[in-house]
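G., the chain you wanted modeled:
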Amino acid sequence: MKRYAPLIALLLCVSLLGLPLLAADKAKAETKTVKTPGLELAALATQVTGIAISPMLGVSAVGAYQWIQASTPEEKAALPWFANPSFWALGILAVGAVAAKDAFGATLPPGWKKPLDILETIENKASGLVAAGAVVPSLVTLGSKLIMSSSGLAETVSLPVTGLAMLPVATFDTSWLLSVLMVPLSVAVFAVVWLLSHAINVLILLSPWGAIDAALKALRTSVLGLVTATAWIDPVVGATLSVIIILLAWLMAGWAFRLMTFGSMFCWDFFTVRRKRFKLLADGNKVFTGDKIEGVPQRTYGRLHQAADGALTLKFRPWLVLPQREVAVPREGLVVGRGVFYSEVLGHDAKTDQNHTLLLLPPRYLGHEEMFARTYHISGTCEIGLRRAWSWIREALGFGAKKPAAQPA
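Predicted structure as tokens:
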């Protein structure tokens, strides 16, 4: 049942997105609801939040809705580019292909669908940039005009001038002023929510099991469907739920930003085959924290430095631009773990007497683990994750490397 969870969630979300479309003809026949600035603002907040959760699905759904709402060829011709059927139909097909990949990928061996997950992560970045740069400003500009018109203010403000004679009336458009104020705020809200949503794609990159991937995708699609359904039932309730999501995304922005940074380097190293032309530096190599080190959060990006006495130090900049900080890295019991997609530096926890992930090495380090260990005077390497599981299978089937016979004393 878990393998079909993404498809079920996608069908539910598409159904919820289609409810306004099915009710469009009925709404036209009935008396039009009086629009107020508050309702227009609530609808705009819901649209921005929904697109941020899933840019490709959100933009395609909004474009399809606007195209169906347009009743005349002139109105359809005046619609923005993302309301063109050739765009939103292709977008919906792409979302369906991703859902099918997640549904059937849950039955594949661990790691087999990882290249497709990386492609989806890149698509999410690209669609997010397009939505933030073009779609959201377009929606906000249109929403500003609707808010101005529904507030009882005309699109132009008249300035009568009185005196000895009646001078011509001066008019000017004021909707642009509201757009100037709302567009930066809307883009910022979109960026914060998108960061949290994009973190799910990076978590899927780190997860070796398809069932976990399906659960994460189903959660995100369900949230999008809930936002859409509540907004259709009551715009105020939908906007309230959107505000809750925005606040949650703001509180988790640091965690999501670190995941995005790691995912960006992961995708770059994978598709450019960075490991084949990568050369390890004598000092100051790029790493990510795999666990908290003296209060420094997980997946913090920085450079690993080694002093003359062998002490290790991680130097990093919070949010990549703030003043540089540094923290000491414990080197007791360090060992480099060789993985299939990325490697790790394992540390030893004396309290639990177990190894734990201390540092994460980007995919560019694959094949360079021995050199990394020698550079930082680490005792050695070992196999972890899927590579360790594959070694165990080979040894269990009798295909492992033969151990050298013990030499007589």
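The chain has two domains: 2-159+174-268, 277-396.

Shout if anything looks off.
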